[in-house]
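Hi L.,

As promised, TetR family transcriptional regulator:
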Amino acid sequence: MTRMSDTDHTETTEPTDTTDTTDTTADLAEVAKERVGALRPSLELLWGTGERPSRGPKRGLSLEAVVDAAVKLADTEGLDTLSMRRLAGELGTGTMSLYRYVPGKTELLDLMLDRVQDEPAETHDPAAAKDWQGAVSAIAHGALELHLRHPWLLKVNQSRALMGPRSLRIMERSLAGLRGMTGLSDPELISVYMAVQSFAKGTARMVVETREAAEETGLGHEAFWAGQAPYLERAMASGDYPLMATLSEDTFDPAFDHFGFGLARLVDGFAALVAARAAGR
């Protein structure tokens, strides 16, 4: 038997990919640069750093008037109805005339978001509270009222909203009210603010969606539950839901202040943390 030599046994290897990734990296960087650049029109309008829009043919029309009209339209008819054409009709001007003031709907929405952000300070000013607990209450009630007054805000992804002067103003006044929470780090103070805002927005969403469901179905609160009563009564009598079956009749009373209860528990939790920090824990 002939022995196979080492030279007869050759291994095949995959060809090395020598594709230069430099071009790909450069392309991604260019895309990122373009996307960041896309924010500039809104930022320049928010901060007044760019060229001010030229006035259109309609006397008295301004960027501020355009944004105010857009907010009013969204309040009354919803965000889905808002368009440059619809807004132009509301203002009694041509669609193309609006583009003298704002480049498009994306930038308009950025301006609308900032326009309403500091409204809560008019009635619930965190900086005017006598202590941080009062500031937390002001932030919560202000955010709740803001989203109930402008329910279209709940349709907008605000997780990365552009920061304009009014947005920073309400944040500044909120931090001024929370400064009494001694012992908390800056990230923790911001987390307090975010927790209160999220709680208020969640409550507002529940209220708005309940209202919308009633309008869409034509069923009020009482009629909604009355329609389910026969089915729920049989379910409770089945023994499959013993804990639910023992709940009192007023458990789901709409008069119960869920918002006030939840807010008080948030304050209790924050107070425990502040006390722990004061005690060196």
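The chain has twelve helices and no strands.

Thanks again for sending the construct details.

K.
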